[in-house]
Amino acid sequence: MTAPVLTVEKLVKRFPAGRSGLFVNAVNSVDLSIAPGETLGMVGESGSGKSTIGRAILRLTEPTEGKITFDGRDITRIPDREIRPLRRDMQMVFQDPWSALNPRMRIGDLIAETMKLHLDLSKTERENRTVRLAERVHLRPEYLRRYSSDLSGGQLQRVCIARAIATNPKLIVLDEPTSSLDLSVRAEILDLLAEIREQSRAAMLFISHDLGTVRLISDRIVVLYLGAVVETAPGEALFADPAHPYSQSLLSAHLPADPEAKLSRHLLVGEIPSPINLPSGCTFHTRCPVAIGACRNEVPGAERIGDAEHYANCLRIAEGGNRIKPTEAA
Amino acid sequence: MAETVGDEFKRDRAAARPFSLKNRFIGIARVSPTLASGVIIILAFGFMAVFAHWLMPHDPVSAYPERVLKPPSAEHWFGTDGNGMDVFSRVIYGAKFGFGIAIPAVILAVAIGVPVGLVAGYRGGLLDEVLMRFFDGLRVFPSIILALAVVAATGQSLLNVVLVLGFLDSPVFARVVRSEVLSLRSSVFVESAKAAGNPTWRILFIHLLPNAIQGATAQAAVRAAWAVRISATLAFLGVGIQAPTPEWGAMIRQGAEFMVTGQWWVGIFPGIALIFLVFGLNLFGDGLQDLMDPRRRAVN
Fold it and tell me: Which fold has domain B33-299?
């Protein structure tokens, strides 16, 4: 296997909760890695730490603990000055394209900006490349002279994508790039991302709370709960055979396209616990329908399932008690 | 390629009202009559300042001893002063001083205040505290007293007046820009600029500045009015510009002496000119502020 473009080890991010002296545990010891050209999907409900992980990877927020290795280099603590040249190789697309672009810059200048910052090109060469990038993201060249307020959400997200791919980065973090868009536009953007994924060798971290979207685009999927990874699996394996009880209930809430399909829903009881006071042991035990006494005290490690790259963090996998039976669901 | 409905709409609107300066002005006057009146007054004084040499019937500093303190007449519209100089010509020439002091002073204030506000707002923390407390300190002193003291100490010259006014006024711009930056610095486009690899100076001047400068633009006009007023006050108190220079403040000072003896025209006319220019600049500034206020703009 080739060396991963990104490795995250035991990443922890805590935010102070106001002046209370308490901390919000946004990310709790997350491990993940992305191979060159691979697309890793990351799902979890809001508050599960998805965005924080994405931002910490790009050093847009400082990690509290852990280690982030990008392209063979430990970037966890290097100063801003040294991070800046690396940004050529790691770009980001944000959730809300309306607020992610400087309203006082022309679209063309916005697309050309990353090239201006990182590549040593003549002005004409840069302009030619900007036009080609606009074509690549299916944006009509006349928009290049306009401002962001003249464009629709889908068009703006194309601009953001063009900005992100302009320097041929090795990693692109996409933080819910389609969540704020209309359904029809969402499909177009997903098609575009799939196209770019084929053409470029860029690895992608695709963050979303929408299972259907993640399934379409990802090679592997990571499921998060309360800032921790509960399951990692190749896309199809996760959908065919979710091992962690949380993944099972998450998938059962996702409606399949087939109207005839039989639904077995595993509804979870209660609210998601506060990330200020994390439950002991397995953080999911407070809502888990198959939890046993040991789940309160013991933190589960990653268990390998089958022979694929499929791991889940659940104590009951070893004895086969991890399956939620329909009768056990509330 | 097919045209969208939006394009058609924009073209129709453009066709309905062809662009011209006159139409543009009518549009502004409808939204903000305040702004329009301010523009007219400022343009009138600007015209006076630029074309003073053609507009003045007499030389503003030539004394005619035989015509001392003559009341307004066909020859001397605003009469003559204690040196027998033509008050009308001097009032016109005085516009040069009004703009000549106010514009460079405001430019200096912006040049100091805006970068300080940008850095203080973006960096925050101790640097912000130190810079802002220093500027607050400046604002504690009554500006006229501080200006008087500094000009008196550094020497009486036009340049010193400009420097002092510009420096004293910089906290206003620092505050306005800082408060804008405080609300902008956590916005997504700033984070996106950082993620793209922008160095701090580019985030400050290319990304934050154009989005934070609006409030300062409106302030600039109001502060120009302030600079005109303070520089005239300094001249009136005999600091900075000295009579017989045809500066309004200095002329009012001379006129005040003759007011008691009934020669009202020496001081009244430069006084009226001063009031109008200050009034016009204030109207312009208030009008700009109105225009930028989204609540007001929504109505129109």
Answer: MetI-like fold (1.10.3720)
